Amino acid sequence: MARKGLVPPLGKEGKLKPLLLQGAELKAEQEKAKTLKKVPMTSRETSDLIMLGIGAFTPLDGFMTYDDWKGVCDKYLMADGQFWPIPITLSADKALADSIGANEEVALVDPSNKDEIMGTMKVTEKYTIDKEHECKCVFWTNDVEGHPGVANVMAQKEINLAGPVKVLSESFYPTQFGEIYQRPAEARKMFEDKGWQRVAALQLRNPMHRSHEFLAKIAVEVSDGLYIHQLVGKLKPGDIPADVRVKAIDVLVENYFVKDTVIQGGYPAEMRYAGPREALLHATFRQNYGCSHLIVGRDHAGVGDYYGPFDAQKIFDEIPEDALQLRPLKIDWTFHCFKCGGMASLKTCPHGKEDRLLLSGTMVRKTLSEGGELPAEFSRPEVVKVLQAYYGGLEEKVEIKLHGAATGDVKK
Amino acid sequence: MARKGLVPPLGKEGKLKPLLLQGAELKAEQEKAKTLKKVPMTSRETSDLIMLGIGAFTPLDGFMTYDDWKGVCDKYLMADGQFWPIPITLSADKALADSIGANEEVALVDPSNKDEIMGTMKVTEKYTIDKEHECKCVFWTNDVEGHPGVANVMAQKEINLAGPVKVLSESFYPTQFGEIYQRPAEARKMFEDKGWQRVAALQLRNPMHRSHEFLAKIAVEVSDGLYIHQLVGKLKPGDIPADVRVKAIDVLVENYFVKDTVIQGGYPAEMRYAGPREALLHATFRQNYGCSHLIVGRDHAGVGDYYGPFDAQKIFDEIPEDALQLRPLKIDWTFHCFKCGGMASLKTCPHGKEDRLLLSGTMVRKTLSEGGELPAEFSRPEVVKVLQAYYGGLEEKVEIKLHGAATGDVKK
Fold it and tell me: What is the ipTM of this complex?
């Protein structure tokens, strides 16, 4: 009765399409790339390229053409009819773009990491876009001052370059994150080895307090296993570095979850803060990772007040019916309620604000940085210890190694 | 992306097929029935007839033929290829059966209720069955001493009568249970009025303690609404009467659930204690009621040790893929865990027995009948009050009206 096996990757072929070269092919392409014109990438473009490399963006074969860009903005559809929720594009300044001939191959480099050659691209198309149109479609706003995703798009160079890519490097991710850094094929293998078919993904970019544990446990109850899938790409200043989060999640899983019901992994993308559209992107690449469900809570991938708290849930009802096999697991706002005598959500707790334990992010950070305790109803003591050590800088072992992350700035 | 509307009823036509006559047609059939040969029914047969009457057993049109019986026993399939999990048959003693001619119409009467004429049937087939084969298939045992379902089948009369029925009465259910007694069309209307599409059913034949509340709330989190659907047919001696359970559920829902997320209803069937096969029957008629999910917990519809605790979950993976659109919501054994600091299941709590609050049924009954309190982690105080009143006979308002139920016997 149930589907046998994991959900298939996106696309007509139904199999992963990693664009990362291996072995001799990689060596040859690396040699060739040294001779090519260099196109510098932003950190978002770099992380998108790595997502293409590992097959997380299957079935894309490179950066999008104008028709793909337009179709994705306007109706979630690539030119060939494939569903895709957010433009994956590469831009270059006009002088550089003008110097590139038709079908010329270029080297894609990461200027934040000594111009490492990350990949090559055959430039099949050069085009300009209406950036404000993209922002309106993707971010629902043109507020360049307030919205970091809009600011990024508006800061893109004048010309978009499209074409198929070959990926040559995964940057620092494999060495820095070790086992936590997982490619879709590896995640699928782990799920299959555990006999999982229904796998729920928990998108995470913050430490797990009890409200996240509660979301996660609802997912465990109704599926075969949970994939706690952290963003380990670039963060906002003040966000907690990935290795601290990993450690905090490790102690939580070890002490409060049943063995073999949870796998923790990381993926190399960065946040766009596109709220509903980004929830769809999170769902899209989670299906490629083999997840049948994505937990979508309150204000998923949001920033500021640009989206309603449940817009990221509603958008799943607006995309074409056959767009995704992954289904959203929509959960309301969660908290501890003293009258309920446990964790609850707005959907299951009928009591008042005064019965609920609600702490602001500012208060949590202040308490932790002063070495104070958080209530056991808010956070597990084992998790608090890890966070206190980070905030207080008390524990030498918690090294802040995350590439480019500010370590001292704990303000929002 | 999601299905629009409620799940359809079973059967090719996709619509409810209630066999209960109304108005002039009913009057005429009642008059005619008085002239027909009387076939007495057991309480199980009577409640099955009412389930046919209200459309809960759509698309059946009466009691099963030999080919239906055989196909359902052996492979869950009626002669016409329709999925069905448990034989719905009527038996008569040989002398009576012999006296009935081919295609003769008979009156079906309820001897436990002054021979009320419950329906008529055109007898299209008379046949004998291998009762032990039915028991082996349906109950997985032939233990006539220990298994109440087996005892019932083995006590059936020699000859099965098959044919289409017309239903003339719903017995005492509408008057005794009022709004709680709901026909599938009424339940569907209520769900639609609330805008529900994903409706989870909680099968219940006992009062709701916190472990049931927890199951129910997981279901609420992942669906549009919960249908607490109680069996109000015949019980085992010692079971708590339906009106007490209804009251205990009312106070629970009122105090611990969000308004408009729960509907409480009752259905007129009785337990067969067929464990896994009965879980499928519960799923089958719940789809007719409009439910997209059925919560299947530990030892669903079981008795004694005849079934493994999760056999009723596993069987959903063994029936044909297209048998049901309703899906089981499989949940492990639930309890309060002091280390988790809340309700949990064996799937989400990694702690030991000593951390969990586990009370035996005997201890719960003893405490309640002595007017004692149950721990708040086991049962809500409002629910305890209702049960104390019933057990202690302290509250005049709790009238024990349930048809045929023993009121004094609280042993298992």
Answer: 0.86
